[in-house]
Design goal:
binds 6-O-phosphono-beta-D-galactopyranose; four-stranded mixed sheet; 14 strands; eight-stranded parallel sheet; 13% strand; 471 residues
């Protein structure tokens, strides 16, 4: 590999998720998910979004024109098994089966997320969703259905999206974010870890050639100053926000510092005798790790008497964002060295390289960037163009750092920026756009849903064509 390019066979892609992109919320037998029911208070709902469900052929043609050789999308559990744990929906199976076939014909490798926040509401109603151990068997059955129907054609699988960020967006789990729910969150997390392990074991059994692992939202944590107390705070945040999750994935064990904290605060989840064996089963070890990277985080020491604050982002469509405080451990603060986007997310391309080194040093497994991108308010010109130079600048700088990390020895197999096409932002609706392709609609008005290529489309096309040499 020359310094100027990426490895041969590098996966160049783009990402989306079902509830943000498909629409057809109530069509062809699909039931509602918890996110369908929780995301509609402050901007448009999930009923139509980008209407990919009805435009998928055109969308795949655009992917091909862009030059993608891979595409990350998620499957909606309530479209495949509307009751959550009963009969499969043939129309749901057919939709994804046709999509996968069309992708393969176009030379695009599907990278399939099994779970991207959209738990069937029926399971939430029946037994509290992830609060209950019953979810593990139901998730296993859902995975079985996916592997049986698509395993012959899909090689790359992602189990659960952003397990760690579900702590940051408690509404995604029907939680309020209060400290009183800390125990529930750790219990849900335990169930997700078991479900993840089971999903990987089953994948390895049913699809020996598959590559499977979770996709997690991660940030490197910086100390605000060289005060050793701040440095310890950065260590603590790294342990609680990153290592805790990734250790459970790759080592099958609770990080000792987190476990001590859980014991001291009476937060240890209920566990059963076989749980440890399942988590540590060698067949449950992920083949790779998907990393969603948007920004780094900076922390300082938080005295014990500081108030607890969950890392909640308010889902109001407004620019509200409050960092996390864990008393005695760390407190998130702004980093004055970094510019921000319109929603105060800090822009830090070098942070990607730092993070990749941290994770690769710790686990030594192949990595894939499953999300990375910048959202903004955009204007379609009268001649149907979108001049998104800020996106080109953001992605260019992140790809340069990614290329550098690879040159320094980190094994990164692909890049799936968020998002291939405009879709419903989880926290800001259609006002915040992420795509290479503009979708002509707003939160208030569906307009014609036409697709228009942005400037970044042509820029990314060139990057892919030259395997990164144009950067
Ligand atoms: C990640 C999610 C995506 C997407 C992205 C952008 O956390 O996995 O689903 O939403 O963030 O965030 P937002 O839509 O809130 O701007």
């Amino acid at each position: 590999m020359g310094k100027q390019t990426f490895p041969d066979g590098f996966l160049w892609g783009g990402a989306t998720s079902a509830y943000q992109f498909e629409g057809a919320r109530d069509e062809d037998g699909k039931s509602r998910s918890i996110v369908d029911n929780s995301i509609n208070a402050h901007y448009t709902d999930t009923s139509i979004t980008s209407d990919h469900y009805h435009h998928w052929r055109e969308d795949v043609a655009l992917m091909k024109e862009l030059g993608l050789n891979s595409y990350r999308f998620s499957i909606a559990w309530p479209r495949i098994i509307p009751s959550g744990n009963g009969a499969t929906n043939p129309k749901g199976i057919k939709f994804y089966s046709d999509l996968i076939d069309a992708l393969l014909v176009a030379g695009i490798e599907p990278v399939v997320t099994i779970y991207h926040f959209d738990l069937p509401q029926t399971l939430q109603d029946q037994y509290g969703g992830w609060r209950s151990r019953q979810i593990i068997a139901d998730f296993d059955h859902y995975c079985y259905v996916l592997y049986k129907n698509f395993g012959d054609r899909v090689k790359y699988w992602l189990t659960i999206n952003e397990q760690s960020n579900m702590f940051a967006l408690p509404y995604l789990l029907n939680l309020s974010g209060d400290e009183s729910e800390e125990r529930v969150k750790f219990q849900m997390n335990h169930h997700m870890m078991l479900a993840n392990a089971q999903a990987i074991i089953r994948a390895h059994e049913m699809m020996p050639h598959a590559i499977i692992g979770p996709a997690i939202g991660l940030s490197p944590y910086y100390a605000l100053t060289a005060d050793p107390q701040d440095v310890i705070a950065a260590h603590n945040a790294t342990v609680f926000r990153n290592d805790f999750f990734t250790d459970l994935y790759f080592k099958g064990t609770y990080h000792p510092e987190v476990m001590n904290y859980l014991v001291a605060h009476d937060l240890v989840p209920d566990m059963e005798p076989n749980d440890a064996a399942l988590l540590m089963n060698p067949a449950a070890k992920p083949d790779y790790l998907g990393i969603n990277y948007y920004e780094s985080k900076t922390v300082r020491a938080a005295p014990r008497d500081t108030a607890y604050h969950s890392p909640a982002m308010s889902v109001t469509g407004e620019d509200v964002r409050v960092g996390e405080t864990r008393p005695g451990l760390y407190q998130e603060v702004a980093n004055s060295h970094l510019p921000t986007n319109e929603w105060h997310w800090e822009i830090d391309p070098a942070g990607l390289r730092i993070l990749l080194h941290q994770i690769y040093d710790r686990y030594g497994v192949p990595l894939i960037i499953t999300e990375n991108g910048i959202g903004g308010v955009e204007q379609l010109t009268s001649d149907h163009q979108v001049h998104d130079d800020y996106r080109i600048d953001f992605l260019d700088k992140h790809l340069v750092e990614l290329r550098q990390a690879i040159a320094e020895g980190v094994d990164v197999i692909g890049y799936e920026p968020w998002s291939f096409m405009d879709l419903l932002s989880t926290t800001n609706g259609f006002r915040k756009r992420y795509g290479f392709v503009y979708v002509n609609r707003t939160d208030e008005d569906l307009l014609d849903l036409n697709r228009y290529k942005k400037d970044s489309f042509y820029w990314y096309q060139k990057v892919i064509e030259t395997n990164g040499a144009s950067l």
